[in-house]
Specification:
The structure is a single chain. The chain is mainly alpha-helical. It folds into three domains: about 80 residues; about 170 residues, no CATH class; about 90 residues, no CATH class. About 65% of the residues lie in helices and about 10% in strands. The chain has twelve helices and six strands. The strands form two sheets. The protein has a three-stranded antiparallel sheet. Strands 4-5-6 form a three-stranded antiparallel sheet. A hairpin with a 2-residue loop joins strand 5 and strand 6. Helix 1 packs across helix 3, helix 2 packs across helix 3 and helix 7 packs antiparallel against helix 9. The chain is globular and about 80 Å long. About 30% of the residues are buried.
Length: about 400
């Protein structure tokens, strides 16, 4: 197990992060860390009891130390014995570009995160976007397959942006992979090493993918301004839409992780139960357990979770039925538009090609949700049956 690193959050109580043998980050209190490290270093129970008494400010007996250490060691070993899990939010995650290839590229990309370099590149990208929006670029073209191939290159650049930002601050980026995130097929970069960084450094890692992908999109648009290529304009538009989508803070895209790290709140989306219990105790006239954050952060977390709940309800009520309708009509769209998309001239209008692609993603997403629901239902039934027998 590697040396512990203090986890930088806004919580009042400190915690540390250890990297287990399987790469999983394990969060412990300073007391638990002292007990685990001291026990593994061979310190006697009496020494540990004296150290814990000094840390906690209360007497600690040798039997208490022995029992606590055995339980803590068993818990940590159970975590380390597990297979390394998929990144958070992923249902399926398969590495496709090994760490041995990602790391050297990430070290080069890391130079883009030097403050002066980043400020200059962002300013240039803003100028290019302004010229395009002012009417300097031609209308998007119809060669959707070529434009989408260029867009896919930007997705790889996006993941290298996360890896490069991680490397910029001394973190060790891992492989780039393909997976199912929520319900959509995506590329991902394994940057769990970012938990070893300061919180604002983690924010840079969170937004590093959008930054590098945006630079690629700006390069496409700049080339289009110089050449008049309508295909490059379409590729740049796809990149821009993807970056805006990644900034969405209510789904677990880059914007979500950036807000959580900026606030210093670990697992932002999982704080709903804690806040509801706090509010319930307050309304009942009882003294609730204090929230771990400063009042301003707690208020922002509450406002965010309320907004996220409303967004999800709106998504379920308005968007899901529309997606189901679109998926139902997709076979007819496929039959009508596919020949034009794959034909030699690629003459299908960009809007129709986009509908074909988006409709396909919708079908995949809904199919994935159905499969995930069935798998969860089977696992739940198996657990219930095991309890009954």
């Amino acid at each position: 197990m590697e040396a512990a690193v203090r986890l930088d959050t806004s919580e009042r109580n400190e915690s540390v992060v250890l990297r287990g043998r399987n790469g999983i980050r394990i969060r412990l209190s300073p007391v638990a860390h002292y007990l685990l490290e001291g026990g593994r270093a061979g310190h006697s129970q009496a020494q540990l009891a004296a150290g814990l008494a000094e840390l906690t400010g209360r007497p600690v007996s040798v039997p208490e130390v022995e029992d606590a250490y055995q339980r803590l060691e068993a818990r940590v070993r159970s975590i380390e014995d597990r297979p390394a899990p998929a990144p958070a939010g992923f249902w399926l995650a398969l590495p496709v570009i090994p760490e041995a290839y990602v790391a050297p590229v990430a070290r080069v990309v890391a130079h883009l995160f030097q403050p002066a370099v980043a400020a200059t590149l962002i300013a240039l990208a803003a100028v290019v976007a302004g010229l395009a929006l002012a009417g300097g670029a031609p209308a998007p073209g119809t060669e959707f397959l070529t434009a989408y191939a260029l867009f896919f290159v930007s997705l790889i650049a996006h993941e290298l942006g996360h890896a490069g930002a991680c490397a910029r601050y001394g973190g060790r980026p891992s492989a780039i992979g393909f997976g199912i995130y929520l319900a959509f097929p995506v590329l991902f970069s394994d940057v769990t090493a970012a938990w070893d960084l300061r919180r604002w450094q983690r924010v840079v890692v969170d937004l590093g993918g959008i930054y590098v992908q945006g630079l690629v999109g700006a390069a496409y648009v700049a080339a289009a301004l110089g050449t008049g290529s309508r295909t490059l304009v379409l590729a740049g538009a796809l990149v821009g839409f993807s970056c805006l989508l990644s900034l969405n803070p209510f789904f677990k895209f880059d914007g979500y992780w950036a807000i959580g790290d900026a606030l210093g709140v670990v697992n932002l989306g999982r704080q709903r139960r804690r806040l509801l219990e706090y509010a319930r105790e307050k309304l009942a006239g009882r003294r609730p357990r204090a929230l771990p954050w400063p009042p301003s952060v707690a208020a922002f977390v509450a406002a965010y979770l309320l907004a996220a709940t409303l967004v999800w309800l709106g998504f379920l009520v308005f968007v899901v039925p529309a997606l189901v309708s679109r998926a139902y009509a997709y076979p007819a769209v496929l039959g009508a538009d596919l020949p034009g998309l794959v034909g030699p001239a690629h003459s299908l209008p960009a809007g129709a090609a986009q509908s074909l692609l988006v409709g396909g993603l919708v079908v995949v997403a809904l199919g994935t949700l159905v499969v995930r629901f069935c798998v969860s239902a089977v696992k739940t039934l198996a657990r219930v049956r095991a309890r009954l027998t």
